[in-house]
Design a protein that fits this description.
This protein has 12 helices and 9 strands. With 269 residues, it is of the alpha/beta class. It holds the Pfam family ECH_1.
Length: 269
């Protein structure tokens, strides 16, 4: 399946047949996004979710900066919207973020330069994030008398409620080291090695069982907020039992015991 973008401000490329890179492509405006880009992202994410051959999504941006967040002209238009129009507009963003957060594929944010406002939400929705050492971050909404509402569930999950109490209210700018300490970023690299580092992470994922990776991600999404009780014990036991008797589980175990590459590794050769 070929994934198509309906916006020139969102590009799609394939580092290899199992990896797709979706890039914000408006560097003249620091990759600020508006409702048309949000719609294009939503459509692209829906296509990716249905493509079994794609295993890793890299979310990136062209130019010096990841994204300045919401486009100013879009914000100016929103100022004239009614409550109902604003709610509908915000729901489109909320839906796109949910799609990204729940994609069955592994997702990696590739971050350079500034990531402000909604851009922090995009990063928080990804499974992992690698940033250049010049990256900076800001939850800047309150500077404009607004709030980071639609991104808040994901940012709170990423950096925790205590840090959000601070950064939601102060709109302070923080660097890549602080973002790593908070858990928003999991690796900092030099700018000229950013692409290679992200591809290395993607290839690490590709070296693992395809179905196992998808199901491992679903464990986090399904159980992160559940109380550990008899129901969870039964569900998790059932899941590992199903995986053990699956074709992929059997192949992985046999490959390990016979000291040979698993089939998904041979397919990469």
């Amino acid at each position: 399946m070929t994934i198509l973008s309906t916006s020139p401000l969102l590009t799609v490329t394939y580092p290899n047949e199992a990896i797709i890179e979706v890039s914000l492509n408006n560097p003249e405006k620091f990759n600020a996004f508006d409702d048309s880009v949000i719609l294009a992202m939503s459509e692209v994410f829906a296509q990716i979710a249905n493509d079994q051959d794609l295993r890793v999504l890299i979310l990136s941006a062209q130019g010096k900066h990841f994204s300045a967040g919401a486009d100013l002209s879009w914000m100016q238009r929103m100022a004239d919207y009614s409550f109902e129009q604003n709610q509908q507009d915000a729901m489109a963003l909320a839906t796109m973020l949910y799609q990204l957060n729940t994609l069955p594929q592994a997702t990696i944010a590739k971050v350079q330069g500034a990531a402000f406002g909604g851009a922090v939400g995009l990063i928080s929705c990804c499974d992992m994030a690698i940033a250049s050492d010049n990256a900076s971050f800001c939850l800047s909404e309150v500077k404009l008398g607004l709030i980071p509402a639609t991104i808040s569930p994901y940012v709170i999950q990423a950096i925790g409620p205590r840090a959000c109490r601070r950064y939601f209210q102060t709109a302070e700018r923080f660097n890549a080291n602080e973002a790593t300490r908070l858990g928003l970023i999991d690796e900092i690299v030099e700018l000229d090695t950013l692409t290679a580092s992200v591809l290395n992470r993607a290839n690490q994922i590709l070296s693992n069982g395809p179905d196992a990776v998808r199901q491992a991600k679903s464990l986090v999404l399904d159980f992160q907020h559940q109380e550990i009780n008899d129901s969870v014990l039964a569900q998790t036991s059932e899941r590992i039992a199903q995986v053990r008797v699956s074709d992929e589980g059997q192949e992985g175990l046999q490959a390990f015991f016979n000291k040979r590459p698993a089939s998904w590794l041979r397919d990469k050769e």
